[in-house]
Amino acid sequence: MDTIKKTQLFNASCVALVVTALAFATRGSFVEAWATEFSLTHTEVGWIIGTAFWGFTLAMIFGGPLVDIIGIGRIISIAFFCHVVGIVLTIIATGFWSLFISTLLIGIANGSVEAACNPLITSMYTDQKTRRLNRFHAWFPTGIVIGGLAVFLFNKFGLIDWRYAMGIMLIPTFAYGYMFLNKEFPQTERVVSGFSYKDMLKACVSPLFLFMAFCMILTAGTELGTNQWIAALLANVSSNPILLLVWISGIMALARQFGGTLIHNLKSTVVLLTSSVLAFAGCILMGYTSGAMVFASAGIFALGVAFFWPSMLGFVSENIPQSGALGLAIMGGIGFLGGAIAQPVLGAIFDAQTIAAVPAGQTVEMLKAAAAGTQEAMTWASAQLAGGAHTLRFVAFVPAVLILFFTFLHIWKRKHV
Predict the structure, then answer these.
(1) Fold of 7-415
(2) Mean pLDDT across the stretch 269-297?
(3) 198 contacts 318 by C-beta, under 8 angstroms
(4) Sequence-distant (≥ 6) Cβ neighbours of residue 172 within 8 angstroms
């Protein structure tokens, strides 16, 4: 470990995570642009952006076991290649299938980053896993802030073509590729600790691991599903709804960056339970408030989901260390599986709730085709606003279930300590 440059590897990992976040943030702002330019329904756009989550899941499931075999560096090389190709193909996309394939490649790249960097960090910082994972994952919402502000500025200065936002992603992509170049990587913690491959596989089918994996689907669905659609769901609350995503992500970034010490000193079950309560309250409030209060409600939601992802990974790494890189990969992969499932579901709910809000005697096609400033256009905006609010109330069901699950986990953990 003496020849391992931990700080440089950690910094490079953070830049790589920024790229995954930029992809997430920009896709969230492309929902309406893609729907309009390529004549797609929200459900079809949901399948496209959900593909990134499927690609992520595949990369995590297959890349996790390979980390110990082919090495962390090769997995990062796969991430770099898929990021570059996926970004370029998205820029030159012509419709549903080209967007589908390019988004899939970006998802594989994002999953490869997580598959490599999570075990890299837990292997380098074995005595402060949760704290370091929180600081690492702080760069995901930080990247969303960067991407969201870039989209906002592009819109403000008239550069409304979403391809400009995609092009920006190439800058940090080449940066992390250079930062990782010719670096020496450590062995994973599982290998150093002497746990066998059989031990790792056995740990990944233990009751506690399977329970946490199921919870990961729900926590990730709450965070990633809602954040990916927030700009579309609340498009008529603000003239710049992307700023809502920036606001949420900024709070998450600060919480993860500076809340690591607090989290390190608290029981992880308490953190997860509290997060579920705040996420539930935030979803409900966003579904019933308007104006400036939406930002206050979104802030509560942000504090709720901020510690979900890193705390889930930290819990598994600390309580089931035998699961190793595969365990972290499965948790991350299944988390994005939750996000993938959420995308078309949220899109379909949004479509259904919007249609339900259309006044009798009028049709969606008629209202969508209305000229700006007309009564029909205002009616359509009102229907979309109602549809978004009702969709968020549906989302609140997921953290409500998590409150029950994490209460059970906390009680169980206290009895078995």
Answers:
(1) Growth Hormone; Chain: A; (1.20.1250)
(2) 88
(3) no
(4) 15, 18, 19, 22
